Structure formats: structure tokens, C-alpha cells
Amino acid sequence: MAYHRSKQGRSLERRKLWGDPVLLITIVLLSLFLFLFILYPLLTLLLDSIRGEGKLGFEVYGRVLDLKRFRQAFSNTLVLGAISGFGSTLIGLLFAYVDIYVTLRRRAVSGLFRTVALLPVVSPPFVLSLSMILLFGRTGLISRSLLGMRHSNVYGLHGIAVVQILTFFPVCYLMLKGLLTNIDPSLEEAARDMGASRWKVFVTVTLPLLLPGLGNAFLVTFIEAVADFANPMLIGGSYDTLATTIYLQITGSYDGTGAAAMSVMLLGLTLVLFLIQKYALERKTVSTLTGKASRMRAGIQDRSVTVPLTILCSAVASFVILLYIMVPFGALFKLWGKNYSLSLQWFEYVFKYDGMNAFRDSFALSAIAAPLTALLSMIIAYLVVKRRFGMRPVIEFVSMLAMAVPGTVLGIGYIRAYANGLFGSAHWPAFQEGGSLHQIMPHGLLGSIYGSSLVLILVFIVRSLPVGTRSGISALRQIDKSIEEAAYDLGAQSGKVFRTITLPLIRQSFLSGLVTSFVRSITAISAVILLVTPQYVLITVRINEFAEKGYYGVACAYATILIGITYAAIFIMNWVLERMDNSSRSPRARARWRRRRGLEAL
Fold first, then answer.
1. Cα–Cα distance between 290 and 183 in angstroms, integer?
2. Which of 248, 274, 351, 516 is the most buried (most CB within 10 A)?
3. 451: left (phi over 0), alpha (psi -120 to 50) or beta
4. Phi, psi of 102 (to 5 degrees)
5. Where on the phi/psi map is residue 248: left (φ > 0), alpha (ψ -120 to 50), or beta?
6. What is the average per-residue pLDDT within 554-569?
7. 231 neighbors 97 (Cβ within 8 angstroms)
8. pLDDT tens for residues 285-299?
9. Cβ neighbours of residue 406 under 8 Å, at least 6 residues apart?
10. At residue 82, does pLDDT exceed 90?
11. Is residue 383 a contact partner of residue 395, using CB atoms and an 8 Å limit?
12. Which residues contact 253 (CB under 8 A, 6 or more apart)?
């Protein structure tokens, strides 16, 4: 009986699908977009790596594996990923536990911890690396000026690991905070009533419930660390990782096929970790922690617990704040390490030369990509949650796949796939001989989009798509399907239902996805550094160029303005969301809201 009902349900969904041309066209166009701009570049890289110099085979992989530099980079990447994943998970757990379990006497302290835990999420990925060099480099403020160390070396594994841990621990904090909130406090209180100490309760009750979530957070951070390009490139020194080795293989050695083979191996590593995280640990976490806590948790006020945890969080928070303070000071000092008098000369330099072009191009391209990404994310989330059709699992998987694709791999894939037009040949041998991709004549469909604004916008969309899609899926799952079914019963088509009912209900997630996409796009570097041409100047590429040359004042000036842009975008989003939330309240509720904030005069 259940089988027949299920079969009838699938048959009804198919009839609805074929009877709704708007929905059918949307699925076809969306599938075409995902294939052309996510799968096709990656498949092209795979074909490049096995085709080699004109014939099918795996000779390129053998040649790459014989390179000592590649083997060392692969080993370095695994070590760095493990250290960064473990450190980020540990600090993320510390901040999440203090936020959920510990009652601090001053609310300002807990607010500070939450703010610091979110700072690296919305900042450019290389800001902390830049600050570490300014503080602990050869002419660092602490290493040289305060401690008198003339041969301080912040470059290498230890420098990258510290920066990546501080960059990625907010991801673990956000994941573990939700898991800790959903743990029923009665489980822990029962152990306490039986005489167990708080440490015993944490080890025997809380930690076992968190283990799948900890593994999930570790793998997510591991993937991020393995795929990171900006930090190893800036502060790595001679410590090569796969991402930087691939970049140097194509820009320094002009070895396109070798870079393709390296990219496939890096993609294979991140893809395996992504599949484990998504289809094993993520589901296990959901099955371990179901529902919400049955009641409010009584915060820990025991000083033997609160004092050491507060000291640890304060130490991390103070160090993060110090790193961020150094960026604007680096732009204000005349000459770092020599002359610490204040001056605006580096800001004047930025705006006198091509600074305005960089800000204009970065802002314009990100502003175009952001609404497209937010709308596309909401459409994918709607199809995944609200519709039933055969391609649904494939669309969900491919839209999330970009999360596992390192930026350098995606950039090389776009060069190979689109440098000579759609389905054209990129002629790697010409590039290997030192030829420029700008000199290659288009032979594929649509002409060459390499070097155009379109390819940069597409990369921005693809890189931000998984975040917006996950946010949209979470929001749509909270909407009762009967609301939309009533509109369908009245004769509305899918397009009208999505436009007039679904989208207004998830407008906050849409706006959040829009701003998140804008911030991720304007701070991106790994995916676009190989795709940027002199025609378009991006802020992040300029920061990387000046930092590599040792012009830290100019790099800090660019970074300071970029941080200001990102936080202005987030402030505007929060203001709009607050206004939207306030306008949806009743007059009495708005009055209570104002009283709570001391706004009676308004």
C-alpha cells in the first residue's frame, strides 16, 4: 500500500512538472548553467591531464609524481591541513562553549568574544598574514622594534598554521555553537546530580554527543586549509603547498598539462573529504542531535570554570584584535620598521595611481554577481526543498560541489575551458612555450570569455553559490508546504508562487545571501588571480602584488579600505534586516522593541 502511494505521488509530481512550462524551463536552464560553469571546466582539466601531449594516457601523472617539489608540496598540504583543522576546531569549540554554557558577569565581554569570533569571516583572507608579517617579520614591530630580533622568521609552516587557524576557527565556532545549543541540558544535569564533576560531564556526556559535529567541523576546516592559496602565497616562504605549486607550475614553468594533473589530484583530495563530510559526518550529526533543547540551560557561574575559559578566550581575542589593528596602522606609518610617524602618503598613493580603478572594478563586478548569486541560490534551494524530480539530487550536489573545488583549480579549469571559446581548444603547448593566452585566437563557440568581465562574474557566482544555497535550503525547510499548496490549488504556476509567496517569506535569507556573496566576491583572490588581465584591476590582486614586493604600506592602505567596504555592506544589511523585522511587528510589539533599546523618544 505504501509503495503504491509513493508511486502515485511520483506520478503526480511528474504530471505537475510537465504541466508547468516555467518550472521545466527553469530546471533545464539551471542544469545547463551548472554543467557549463562547474562540471565542464573540471571535466576539461581531467581530459587535459590524461590526454597529455596529444595522446591518451597517464604519462603526465607519472611525470608530476616524479617531481620532488610536488611530492613535498603534497605532504606539506596534508600536514598543514591537519594542524589547521585541529587548531581551528579546538578554538572554535572553546568560543562556542563559552558562548552557550558560561555566564559571564559582563555582557560586553561575551559580546566582544562573539564579535571577534566573526571578524575573520567577513575579512579578506590574507589580512591576518599581512599583520603577522608587520608584527613578527624581519622588520616587525614586536620582533625587531620591541624584542630586538634581527633574524625573525615568521614565514613557513608555523606562520601559515597560525594565520589559517585564526582565519578558519569562526567556521567551527558557528557550526559547534548550533550543536551545543541543541544538546538537552537535562542529560548533563542528570550526570551532575549523580555527583560527576563538570569535567567528567563534559568528557562523558557533552563530548560524545559532539564527536560527529567535531569531525564535521574538522573536515570542513581541513578542506578550507588545503584549498587556501592567499595565506601560503603571502606568508609561506619556501613552504610550498599544492595550491601555490599549481599556480607556479602554470605561471613560472608554463606547464599547462602538469598544472592540470596537479589540479586533478588536489581536486580528488578535497572531493573525497567533501563527500565524507557531507554524506557521512553531516548526517550522523543530525541523527545524534535531533530537535531542540527542552528548556533553557542554566549557565555555569563557577569561577573555577569561568576564569580559565575567559582568560583563554581573552588571549585569543586580544591577539586577533591586535592583528586587525595593525592593518590601518600599517597604512598610516611612513615606513614600517624605520619611521613610525603618521602620514596619509600611502592612501594618497592608492588614489593617485590605479586605486580608484581597482575599487571601481571590484565593486562593480561584485555588485553584479551578488544579486545573481542570491537569486540563483534561492531558485536552487526552492527546487531542492519544494519540488520532486529526477535531476533534483544532481542539481543539489553540483551546486554544492564548488565548496570542494580549490580556487586555483577552478581558475585553471576556466582558462582551459574558455580561453578559446566554449568547447574550443586552449592550445596548452603554445602556452607552455611562453605564449600568452591573450594571443590565442578563438576557435570555440561564443568566442573567448577569458580576460572579460563575464568570466570574473561567473567565478564569483560559482564560488558563492554553495553558501547561499545552504542558507536558502535552511530557510525553506521552515516554511509549511500548505501555504504554497493553497496557491497551486487556486491555479498559480510555479513562477508566480515563487515570486509572490516563497521569495517574500525568505527575503531575509535572500538579503543575507546577497551581502554574503558580495563580501566573498570582493575579497576573493585564489580563483581570480589567474583570470585577471590588465583590463580589469581587482583590490585583492593589488594587495597581493604589493605585499609580495614588500610595499606593505600600500598593501595595508588597500586592505584598510577593503575592510571598510565589507563592514559597511554588513552594517547596511543588518540595518535593512532590522527595519524589515520591525515593520513586520504590530504597533504594540514595536513599542516594546523601542523600550528595550531606549528608543521611546522615537
1. 9
2. 516
3. left
4. -100, 135
5. alpha
6. 89
7. no
8. 555 555 455 556 777
9. 226, 227, 229, 242, 243, 263, 266, 267, 270, 526
10. yes
11. yes
12. none
pLDDT band at 71 (very low <50, low <70, confident <90, very high): very high
Residue 4 has pLDDT above 70, yes or no: no
- Neighbour tally for 394: CB within 10 Å: 13
Place of cell 555553537: 177
Q: Where residue 370 falls among pLDDT bands split at 50, 70, 90?
A: very high
Bridge partners (DSSP) of residue 102 are 300
Q: In terms of DSSP bridges, do strands 333-335 and 339-342 run parallel, antiparallel, or are they unpaired? A: antiparallel
Cα of 325 vs its chain's centroid, Å: 23
pLDDT band at residue 162 using 50, 70 and 90 as cut-offs:
very high
Helix (H) or strand (E) holding 60: helix 59-65
Task: Name the DSSP letter for residue 477.
Answer: T
Contact yes or no for 566/118 (Cβ under 8 A): no
Strands (E), 15-153: none
Rounded Cα gap, residues 69 and 495, in angstroms: 53
Distances from the Cα of 546 to the Cαs of 430, 523, 550, in angstroms? 30, 16, 6
Which among 570, 273, 571, 226 has a CA at the least distance from the CA of 409?
Answer: 226
Contact indicator for 527, 403 with CB cutoff of 8 Å: no
